[in-house]
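User: Predict the full complex structure for these chains.
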Amino acid sequence: MSTAPAAPTAPIALPPLANDRFLRACLRLPTDATPVWLMRQAGRYLPEYRATRDVAGSFMGLATNPELACEVTMQPLRRYDLDAAILFSDILTVPDAMGLGLSFAAGEGPKFAKVVRDEAAVAALAVPDMDKLRYVFDAVRTIRRELSDANGVGKVPLIGFSGSPWTLACYMVEGGGSDDYRLVKTLMYQRPDLMHRILAVNADAVALYLNTQIEAGAQAAMIFDSWGGVLADGAFQQFSLAYTKRVLSQLKREHDGHRIPHIVFTKGGGLWLDEIADSGCDVVGLDWTMNLCRARQITGDRVALQGNLDPNVLFAQPEQVREQVIQTLDSFGRHTPGCGHIFNLGHGISQFTPPESVSVLVDTVHEHSRTLR
Amino acid sequence: MSTAPAAPTAPIALPPLANDRFLRACLRLPTDATPVWLMRQAGRYLPEYRATRDVAGSFMGLATNPELACEVTMQPLRRYDLDAAILFSDILTVPDAMGLGLSFAAGEGPKFAKVVRDEAAVAALAVPDMDKLRYVFDAVRTIRRELSDANGVGKVPLIGFSGSPWTLACYMVEGGGSDDYRLVKTLMYQRPDLMHRILAVNADAVALYLNTQIEAGAQAAMIFDSWGGVLADGAFQQFSLAYTKRVLSQLKREHDGHRIPHIVFTKGGGLWLDEIADSGCDVVGLDWTMNLCRARQITGDRVALQGNLDPNVLFAQPEQVREQVIQTLDSFGRHTPGCGHIFNLGHGISQFTPPESVSVLVDTVHEHSRTLR
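Assistant: Here is the predicted structure of the two-chain assembly.
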C-alpha cells in the first residue's frame, strides 16, 4: 500500500478525440464524468450483432473479416453513449496464429484443433508471423477510419487487446474451457520448465501482437488474464503475473507522440491487487468481488481502476440497475487529483442481457458521476 | 484486523478420542503435529469407493444407505493416517428433503427435479421434517460406532456438514450447477424479498439439520459456502454471510458436555476473510488463492485456519507434492499459543487423483509440521 501520488504534472499528449474521457481516466487526469465501456459490448445481446454474425457465418468468420469486425465494433456506439470502442476480436487469436486451429462451435466456448501438452509440442511453439494476424490489424485500421471525422478527429478511442500469456496457455494445454484446469496445472506442477517455456513464447508473441495493434491504430492496450484467478497464491505470481509483466515491459507506451495506456484485468485477482498494481500497467481491471473503495485504498491511486458491476445486475428492473450503478460509483468515491475510474462490468456482458439495461447503465454513469467531482 | 488473542485458558472439554489433533487445532489448542483431512476424501479417486458405489447403484443410493455411507466414510481412514472422518453425504440433502428431488446423472453434477423461481415456489418452502433426513443421522450414528473402540474411545472425530443457505439457494433456483449464476442472481437483484425468504428458510433448515447431526454424534460441523465467492462485494455480506451467521447463531456449541467446533468454508471468499472470521465460527476454510501467512495476519489468530493446497498439486510427482505441502505449512508459519491450522486442500479432491499422492501429502504434513512447533 502507498499514499496517493500527486497528479501527473508533465503534459501528456493525447490523440485528437471528440471524447477523450476514457484516455484521460486511464492516465488519471481530471474528467467531467466517469467514462464507461463494457467488456464484450459488441456481442450477442445486440440483435444487430446477431444479424451480422449470421452474414459472416461464424464467430471466426466475423473476427477475420475486417469490414464486418468494424461493423460490429461500431454497433454498440450507435446505440449507447459509450466512451470507448474495443476491437471486435478474440483473446485467443495469438495461439490460432501459432497454428493451433481455433474454432467456436455454436453455443460453445473456444476449441483448439491441436493442443500443447508434451515436450515436442512445446518445443515447436514460436512467436507467430504477424502476417497471420493481418486481419486484426486491418480491422484496427478500418475501425479507426470509421471512428474519424473529416478532420481526422476520432469519436472515441479504440482499445486493442489480447489474452494474457497464462490465459492463452490454459486454452493451449486444455484445448478449450475447463472447470478444474487439471491438465494445465498438472503440466505446471509436474513440468514447470515446459510451462515457463510456453509462457515465455506467449509473452513475446502477445507483446509483438499488441505493439502491432498499436502501430495499426489501437489507442490503448488491454491484457485479459481471464484465468489468472484460478491459480494458487505463489503460482499466480510465478506463472501469470511474471509473464504479464514481461508483456508490459515490451509494450509501446507512446505511438505517434501519443500516450498508450496499458490495462491489466485479472478475473478473480482481487487478493493480488497490490502486486498487479505494481506490474507497470496504467489501469487495473477489477471483477465485482472487489470493493472499489478498498481497491483505491490498496492501490493508493497509483493506477486507475476499471470496473466492476456484476453483469447479472443488468437482468434487474431499470430502477434497480440505476441503484446498483450509483452504488458502484459511490464505492469508488469522490474524485480527487490523480485518481482515475473507468466504469465497466466485472466480466463480459451476458448474451441474455436486455439491451435497454445498457442504456440505463451508461446514462446513469455519466449523470451520477458528475456529482462526485 | 486484530492482535493475536491469548490462548484459551478455560478448560475445554473434548470427547474421548485416540487422536484429538483435529478438534484441538479447531479450538486453537496446542497440537504435536498439524492435523489433516481432505474435502471429499471418501470419493471417486479410491477404487474401493467406486466398488461400493457400484453396489449402491447411484450416488444417492450410497448416501441414503447408512451402512454403505459408513463403509465409504471409513475407506480413506484405512489407507491414510487422516486426523478426521467426514460424514459421506452431499451438501444438498436439505433441499432434497424440502421435496425438490435431488439426483446425480452419471458423470454430471447435481440436478433438482423442481426449481424455486417464482413467488409460489418460494412461498411453499419450509424447514423440512428431519425425519426425511433420518438416513443422514443414522449414518452419523453408524460411523461413530464404527470409529469407536471397545471402551467407546473414537479413533478420530467425525465431521458433519451442510451446504450454506446461499449455496443451497443457487442450486434450488438454477436447478443444478451454473457457470454464470444468471437465474439465481436475477432473482436476487430483481426480487431481493423472495431471495431473503428462501435464505431465511434455508438458514433455519440448515441449523436444525446440523444440530440434529450433532445430536446423532457429529463432533464438528462444517458449512460449505461453495458459491459465496460468485457474489459481488456487498451482495456477499447481505445474501451469503448474513445467513451463514444466522445458522451459526443457532448451532449447538456443546453436546454431551463436549465442545463442537464450527467451520465455515467460502470458496473464493479470501477478500472477505476478515468479515468471515467475525461470523462466530471457530475455523475458516480457505481455498488456494489465499496466502496462509497473510490470512493469519488478517485474522490475528482469532479463528483457526483450514486449508489450502491446490488439489491439482496431487497430479505432480511425489517429490513435488512434498515440496508444495511443505511450502503450504511454512506459509502458515511457526505455531504460537492460540493459533490453529488444519491442513486440507483448497477444494474437494479430484476424482482423477493418484491415491499414492494422498499418502505423500498426509505423511509430509505430519512429519514437517512437527518442525514448526
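Chain B touches chain A at residues 180-182, 185-186, 189-190, 229, 231-236, 268, 270-271, 288-291, 309-310, 312-313, 315-317, 320, 324, 327, 331, 346, 350, 352 (CB under 8 Å).
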